[in-house]
Each structure stands twice: as structure tokens, then as C-alpha cells.
Amino acid sequence: xxxxxxxxxxxxxxxxxxxxxxxxxxxxxxxxxxxxxxxxxxxxxxxxxxxxxxxxxxxxxxxxxxxxxxxxxxxxxxxxxxxxxxxxxxxxxxxxxxxxxxxxxxxxxxxxxxxxxxxxxxxxxxxxxxxxxxxxxxxxxxxxxxxxxxxxxxxxxxxxxxxxxxxxxxxxxxxxxxxxxxxxxxxxxxxxxxxxxxxxxxxxxxxxxxxxxxxxxxxxxxxxxxxxxxxxxxxxxxxxxxxxxxxxxxxxxxxxxxxxxxxxxxxxxxxxxxxxxxxxxxxxxxxxxxxxxxxxxxxxxxxxxxxxxxxxxxxxxxxxxxxxxxxxxxxxxxxxxxxxxxxxxxxxxxxxxxxxxxxxxxxxxxxxxxxxxxxxxxxxxxxxxxxxxxxxxxxxxxxxxxxxxxxxxxxxxxxxxxxxxxxxxxxxxxxxxxxxxxxx
Length: 440
Description:
With 440 residues, this protein is an all-alpha fold.
């Protein structure tokens, strides 16, 4: 019997969250390291990173959707005591992820210039974007597999080894970034290409480690060759559950790409650079929130699989209260520090000013964003994908995009961020009531 089926809900969620903080911190350090070293090259390079971030996240969203769909099946299977189904699903999920990532990467490689031109990159910035993305697409499978295989480990309740994998990758990236970007020692100066190559090398090592843990420690990869019809049925169920999760992952960078395009229109390259800086600082603030979301997956899945529905309800109520407390704490922290931290990434006064505006306004909508994220994860785990699609399609296309567009037209950059904030708040309210209804 899973250990998650008995004992304090708060204690289990805390135990699962704490190790994940180290892993999420490693991911944030990974991304911030790239941004910081690239920012030393100049404003154009920093703006190019801002453009690439949204598209990289969209590509990653496909694989993360497969991971979430597989995790939903794995956690509920383990909660119900069906280890054979869990092992088969891990293998099927990994192969599906590889196939999907290869297809998207090939298409992406040959559409770099038209896609990023559409997003607003031009001139030297577009050239820099192409340098980065051409390398990234070639190694995209290695970049995507580690978070997917780590997700399978966490679905089994193992949150320690994914932390080790992510911390190792972050350390390698810190070491490799300056060597490859600036050409230290015998290596040539590679600039944006060096940043992408450093990322891929670190991810390859992480991929090998996480797959090794899955196979040798947990025995959770079924290497037998199933009948094609069984594989297709498994993929169909993973996709059915994973599409809303992929949509959730993809819509965030789609929305980000949309308001980066708006930012370019109201404030030029400086506004785009400020958005890149602000969103990365914001992601750092959300480390604990992401870690808590990770903890929800095995806890909710195991208990739902064992039909301990009252414990799932308790996790939902705790999550809503935690979102309010978390957002208040983030606001208190940012009030004195937003401008100071923004200055770490640029010495341009206008970039610092706009980044500070972004941070101080966007934090007011954090409660809604957290409720939307956590409730979407909860519903995905228990096998209810349609409400997840409703929550996230409404959030992006009916709330964030129209409100940020209206705000940018009325009040420029400040109005853009205010529209984004209001959209998040309204989305959180919607997600709260939808989830409460679904769990009755």
C-alpha cells in the first residue's frame, strides 16, 4: 500500500514539496544563468533570449503534456496496486515523447525566421535568435526527456532523485555557459550558439541519469515489446489526458509571446528585454509554488487511485488557502527588492524601470495564477481533462489576451501588465468553482 494513503495530508504534501524546491531552484538557476551570461553580451542578445524563451516553452509543453498524461495513469495505477500498468505506461510515455519532439523539432528548425519575425524579432536580434534556436532544435530530444523521466520518478513518489538530476544539470550549465559563450581556454567564442550548446550538454547528462534511476532503482520501464494495438491504446489514453496538460504548458508561452509582441510595440527592444528579465525573476519567486504543484501529483493520484476521495478534497482546500498566503508573501518581498533585483540583469535604467513595473503589478494577480495552475494539475491527475481545457482556454484567449491588448492600447506598458494581472485573477476564480464542482 502506498505510504501516501495514510497520515496527515499537510505532512505528506510538505515532505513531497521540500526536496522538489531544490530541483526547481536548480531549474530556475539554469534559466537565470543563461539569461545572466547572455545579458553580458548586450541588450540585443538579452532581447533575443526573451524571444526564444516562449518558443522553447511551447516545444517543451508537448513533451510535458505527454509526461502529465502518463503521470496521471502511473500515480493512479500505483495507488490501486497495479505496478504492471505503471511500468508499461512509463515506457509508452517516453517513446511517445521522443516521437512527438522529433516531429516538432524538424518543423521548428525550418521555420525559425518566419516564426520569430512574426513575433517581432528583426535585424540583428533575429540573427541572434536563429543562432540559438538552430542549435537547440537539433538537440531538442535531449533537452526534453529529463523533465519527462523525472516526472515519472515523481509520479512514483520519488522526489529526491529528480532533485539530484536537476541540480547536476544546473551545475554543469553554470560551468559550461561562460566557457562556450565567451570562449574561455581552448574553446572559441560562440555567443548565443554557446549558450544553446551548454544547455544541451547539461541536459544529455541529466537524461542519462534520470533514465538510469527509472530502470535500475525503480524497475519502472517495461522494455518488453507490446503488441502494436496495445501501444496505440496506451498512447491514446496518454494523449487524451496529456492534451489539456500540454495545452496548459503551451498556452502560457503563447500568451507570453503575445504580450512580448505587445511590449515590442509599446516600448521597443527595451520593453522586450524588461519582460524577459521580469518573467525570469517571477519564475524564481514561484519556485515553492512549482514544487508544491509537483507534490500534488503523486499525493492526489495515489489517493484517488485508492478511492480516498476525502483526502483529495482536503488537498484542494489546502491549495486554495496556500495560494492566498503565497501571493501576500511575494508582494511583501517585492516591494523593497523589485528594482534592486532587476538591476542584476541590466544597467539600462529604462529596462530596470519597466522590469520593476512588471514585477510589482503582476504579483497582484499571483493568487489567481496559482489557483489555476494547481487546480489544473489536480484535475489532470484524477483523469478529468475537459475542465482543464476550459480553465486554460478561457484564461488565455478570453481573459489575458483581450485584457492585456486593451490595457496596452490605453496605458502602454503599464496597462499591458495590468491586463495580464486582471486576467490571472479572474481565471483563478473560475478554476476554483470548476474544481469544487468536479470533486463533489
